[in-house]
């Protein structure tokens, strides 16, 4: 294929995937509201959109109540009055939501959704992604997620509100402290796969016992924690701590400009779940995926949904960290552990190459790597 | 409508802001520090409390509470109502435990009149006051946990509170503004469904309590957020006049139910849970312990609930039953007199303390010989407890301030009155 064809295909696939993910984001909000409601002995949204079933006796029966709730939310956000507070920095104020939401979508470019696959005669190789075969996929992800924080910091700063400024400051400090541990946690799968290409990393974990999570549980856990911090998800949602800063960085935003911040958070939830699945849980790999590569979409979607459910579960059960405790946790706990993990992993591979490891360690290694 | 960038909004200097605030707070460094106004519309100020906070980064340098947004003039209004009718206003002060307010006022009225309720009425008052301690503590626990973002606890607590509110409705016809205790007894006897409903509550509630404990008691984040936060020493707690769980969290053994028993509390066997550290966690433990003790008291009171009338036999104070109105002229006259004029109370004043869920609520009541109180004043525990907040919060973070407000368990309706 010529570069022009590759670019055209990437645009088409990217457009479709972006639409899928925006819908997915909308239903992530519904999943969160419904699941959270169930965890908290509530019902959750059940009015907007349902499939009526034939009445049995006096009981009115409905199926999938609330299925259109995301659409109703979107309509509400679009039609809400969107006032601009006095004395804001207009350019930055308007730019900030976009700066937050665009990186959230961009992360998806490098995620492999299925193996080598033919769709309507078009052959996707070596794997299906918007931008397949980028050999610095992980660097791309780290770079893009760091841009996202500018949206939050600038939005908080430009709003001309004290609560928003506090939220923005918290955001920048939190990102700096967690980016480091996250970067190191991500490097461990890179060392193990000997590649930064997410497709290669996935290809290395074809069976459930090959998943990197079994060999690197600490790195997987720390990646998950730092991803939650990166997302500003509970219990790290200090920058919008409702009870302290009322809404933090987005307190002065309304309507769809707030909606974009909201979108950014939920899309990042989806994409970071996807990255976690790729790095540690075998990505699109699953039973029969060699014969039917289209199953890859399903497997990755299931793994993403499980990741989202865990995030929601954590939100339902835990209190929030305090600002300084978060810093301590990041710098004094996570960073030393992941550095140690990093050194041990590196030393292990060097020793393995030198062939000085005891034979049972090597046979264990061959069992896991297949 | 305010357009962006227009000059219609003026920036206040710190001095002007201070003058407008009226809190008289000392601002230590107007140039470097941020002056943050928390409330009256803020998610975790438990109503309409406003706090002016001086921040150095996120550390609190100084703060002053600004109250009065919910002032309704309860005490003054009571002076224009008869002793019986003034009762309904006490519900509206501490709306999370109206039973305790009612009890304080009713006991003061009875003291002024020199009458005492029947044993059955006293036992019923104890049961309901303890149920209200549990329902009020459930709101406290839920909102306190919600302030630290443990969201589920809030909803679980409100589920159980709902059951208790149903019991209140069964007893008094109202979920919150009950006004069930009346001078000389009660509005009416308990309905038959009351005892099974409370027994059922006693059955299932301990398991639910265990759930809340499992979510919070040893949760590492919860411990970090509450231990060593908002510490107040026992001496300070006493000199600031703290009462209730906020005082006992510092280890001072003072409970009105033990110190000055009322309504037959001396007949029940219960402990007063005490904390040691005087921090947010100790206050949390104390209130959780109080809920267990309340369960004990309710069980004892239900087991030993005496039979007999719930109202004293004094038609000048207690209205006659409706069944007598059809055939007794005397009853009709009493009824008419009571609901038009009320009863005359002797000259003099009384002071009656009650242990409400929030601390010692006391009623000062002065009669001038007429049917209306000459002066009513309440010593509200929330009001007094809130005064110590600056002392506790200085040097802590904004996030801790939220925890401290939650641990003081204030109700703004009672602070502003």
The low-confidence runs of chain A, each spanning 5 or more residues with pLDDT under 50, are none
Summarize the biggest pleated sheet of chain A.
2 strands, antiparallel
SS field, number of helical segments of chain A = 13
Query: How do the SSEs of chain A run, as a string of H and E?
Result: HEEHHEEHHHHHHHHHH
The end-to-end distance of chain A, rounded to whole angstroms, is 34 Å
Silhouette of chain B: globular
The main β sheet of chain B shows up as: 3 strands, antiparallel
The share of residues in extended strands of chain A comes to: under 5%
Uncertain spans of chain B, ≥5 residues at pLDDT below 50?
1-9
Topology pattern of chain B, helix = H, strand = E: HEEEHHHHHEEHHHHHHHHEEEHHHH
Tell me the number of helical segments of chain B per DSSP (H or I, 4 or more residues long): 18
Helix-and-strand structural type of chain B: mainly alpha
What would you note in describing this structure?
- The complex is a heterodimer of chains A (370) and B (417).
- By secondary structure, chain A is mainly α.
- Chain A has helices at 3-39, 69-79, 90-106, 137-158, 162-193, 198-203, 212-215, 217-231, 242-245, 255-280, 295-317, 323-354, 359-369, and strands at residues 51-56, 59-63, 117-119, 122-124.
- Chain A has a two-stranded antiparallel sheet with strand order 1-2. Chain A has a two-stranded antiparallel ribbon with strand order 3-4.
- In chain A, strand 1 and strand 2 (59-63) form a beta hairpin.
- In chain A, helix 2 crosses helix 10 (255-280) and helix 4 runs antiparallel to helix 5 (162-193).
- The longest helix of chain A is centred in the first third of the chain and has 37 residues, at 3-39.
- Chain A is globular and about 65 Å long.
- The model of chain A has no long low-confidence stretch (mean pLDDT 83).
- Chain B is globular and about 80 Å long.
- By secondary structure, chain B is mainly α.
- Chain B is built from 18 helices and 8 strands.
- Chain A binds chain B through residues 36, 39-42, 84-88, 90, 162-163, 166, 234-235, 237-238, 241-246, 315-325, and chain B through 2-6, 8-9, 34, 36, 42-44, 58, 145-152, 155-156, 159, 215-216, 219, 221-222, 224-225, 397-402.
